[in-house]
Specification:
There is one protein chain. The chain is about 65% helix and about 10% strand. The chain is of the alpha/beta class. A five-stranded mixed beta sheet has the order 1-2-3-4-5. Helix 8 links the parallel strand 3 and strand 4. Helix 4 crosses helix 6. The longest helix has about 45 residues.
Length: about 280
């Protein structure tokens, strides 16, 4: 009895290039996308290689466990997800492109059926439809999961960098540093400062830290309390801290909110604090 799955797989593998050529011919122009027909020769070569991989992966689903479809699927998903993220391609574009691949791929199956001298059983064709469409669905699911994973990793790295830059400690000598805070400080940013600043001071051997608020226009009770916590943590670590540049409106708001800055070393400006407390005495 003829093994129709193997016959179709062999036919598809022999016509991989044909499938890719027909798929590339379906591209539109002027989309400013890797999938655009005018995206350039480098983009076309990338698509050609990856579509070849797509077709081989789908064809392997016809062979059952021996085709290693699951393993190929994961490798394909990682390859394509990394490529699409690098080219700033959205998931929606990939879904549309994969839909066109599915159309062209199935057209090749229809050609195979039409070329056979022996009638292919209907049950076999129906099974191919289920197997192939399920394989495409699994590819899309694997791609989406990998795309999300890689994008989340990238966004987390970017957020870490943003957090790092939002609380930069500038060393002015061996043991003295300045933490210039600029912009609004919300509760989330205040928490991040509490988590990052003490560790940075320890890593860089800071023993005196100026926290400059001259670039901060708004402060509320919650944020002020968290800044107090930062100072308390620094004190426990043996790091002397001074707040500078409290704007008049912040000072007035602080009094209205009942915030007590009397126990904290404060100066009207960073320049004055540096001059009065440390720079005149010693600059190592």
């Amino acid at each position: 009895m003829k093994d129709w799955n193997k016959e179709l797989n062999r036919y598809l593998m022999d016509n991989i290039t044909v499938i890719t050529d027909e798929w590339l011919a379906l591209r539109d122009s002027g989309q400013k996308s890797i999938y655009s027909s005018d995206a350039g020769s480098a983009a076309e070569q990338t698509l050609r290689e990856q579509n070849n991989r797509t077709n081989r992966t789908i064809a392997s689903s016809l062979l059952g466990p021996s085709g290693n479809f699951e393993e190929q699927k994961e490798e394909w998903a990682e390859l394509v997800a990394k490529s699409r993220i690098a080219s700033n391609t959205s998931i929606a574009e990939v879904v549309d492109a994969l839909s066109r691949v599915r159309k062209v791929f199935w057209r090749q199956v229809e050609r195979f059926v039409g070329q056979q001298t022996e009638t292919v059983p209907v049950a076999v064709v129906l099974q191919w439809g289920e197997t192939i469409h399920l394989a495409f669905d699994k590819l899309l699911t694997a791609f989406s999961a990998m795309y999300f994973k890689l994008m989340t990793t990238r966004l987390n790295a970017q957020q870490s960098l943003i957090d790092e830059l939002s609380s930069p400690i500038i060393k002015i000598n061996k043991n003295i540093g300045i933490l210039p805070l600029v912009g609004d400080i919300d509760t989330e940013r205040a928490k991040m400062i509490l988590e990052v600043v003490p560790a940075k001071c320890m890593e860089t051997d800071i023993i005196k830290l100026f926290i400059d608020l001259s670039g901060v226009s708004i402060i509320d009770t919650m944020v002020a309390n968290q800044l107090f916590e930062v100072i308390q943590v620094l004190n426990l670590l043996g790091i002397q801290s001074t707040i500078t540049g409290i704007r008049p409106e912040i000072a007035q708001t602080s009094i209205q909110l009942g915030l007590d800055f009397s126990m904290i070393d404060t100066h009207s400006s960073l320049q004055q604090a540096l001059k009065d407390k440390y720079i005149v005495e010693k600059v190592d």
